[in-house]
Amino acid sequence: MGKAIQVSASILCADFTQLGDEIKKCEAAGVDILHVDVMDGLFVPNITIGNVIIEAIRPLTRLPIEAHLMIERPGRYIEDFIQSGADIISVHAECYGPRREGCRGPDQYPKEVDTIDAAMAQKDIAKIKAKGKKAFMALNPGTTVCFGALIKDLDGVLVMSVNPGFAKQKFLPSVLSKVKELRAYFKGHIAIDGGINDSTAPMAVKAGADILATASYFFGSDNPGAAVRHLKSLGYS
């Protein structure tokens, strides 16, 4: 039996002047999740959008909305994003542990850690779960799989296959070993985000990913429905 593959469309590459129509395009194409990349210019070297956008698009669709919080101190904002309409909250492991030398300063990227304070992370995971929402934890490419016992409380893991901050980056194959490591024991969702297209998606699925986050591949396609069908056809056994 093959495992169902879900497609998550990152609206970072959508046409924001036609956002309602872009969401309809996602629905018509068979997208499973709307992925909203929230960046604060501190955790990553870019600023994008906040919970106001989620609040605006929530009435437009029944698709689940994921708030991918690439921000410092995500716990301060979790309830705001849930109240705005997010169904999935993804927080970064790098916000909960001592950062490596070379990425501790405000202008040093990407943020990376080898360990996390599970108790601190658990407080934020509990906030998400208490509201009946799904909790994912994201890993930057250079961060090790460091969840420990916290893994049992996660609905999913989001493996970044690019260093976060900007769209249209090239896929980093080195992260596939983390996907394989996680899939060996983790029964929840494993999403992969960054540089996903018709060439890289098969590698991600073979490694164990079951959610493929795509931005430019989907929104830049002449046939987005065919693009989604292709990604979903990659189900693995």
Can you walk me through this structure?
By secondary structure, this protein is an alpha/beta fold. The protein has a single domain (6-232), classed as Aldolase class I (TIM Barrel, Alpha-Beta Barrel), CATH 3.20.20. It is built from 8 helices and 8 strands. It has helices at 19-29, 51-57, 78-84, 118-130, 176-183, 201-207, 216-219, 224-232; strands at 6-10, 33-39, 65-70, 88-92, 134-139, 156-160, 189-193, 211-214. The protein has an 8-stranded parallel β-barrel with strand order 1-2-3-4-5-6-7-8, surrounded by 5 helices. Helix 1 packs across helix 8 (224-232) and helix 2 packs parallel to helix 3 (78-84). It is globular, with a radius of gyration of 16 Å. The relative contact order is 0.17.
Task: Provide keyphrases for this structure.
single chain; 8-stranded parallel beta barrel; TIM Barrel; 237 residues; 28% helix; alpha/beta
Short description:
Helix content is about 30%, strand content about 20%. The chain is α/β, with parallel strands linked by helices.
- The CATH class is Alpha Beta
Q: Multimeric state of these chains?
A: single chain
Proportion in helices: 25-40%
The largest pleated sheet is described as: 8 strands, parallel, barrel
Beta-strand fraction estimate: 15-25%
Given as residue ranges, the uncertain stretches (5+ residues, pLDDT < 50) are: none
**Domains, number:** 1
N-to-C CA distance: 6 Å
Known CATH architecture: Alpha-Beta Barrel
- Total DSSP helices: 8
Radius of gyration: 16 Å
Structural class call reads alpha/beta
**Helix and strand succession?**
EHEHEHEHEEHEHEHH
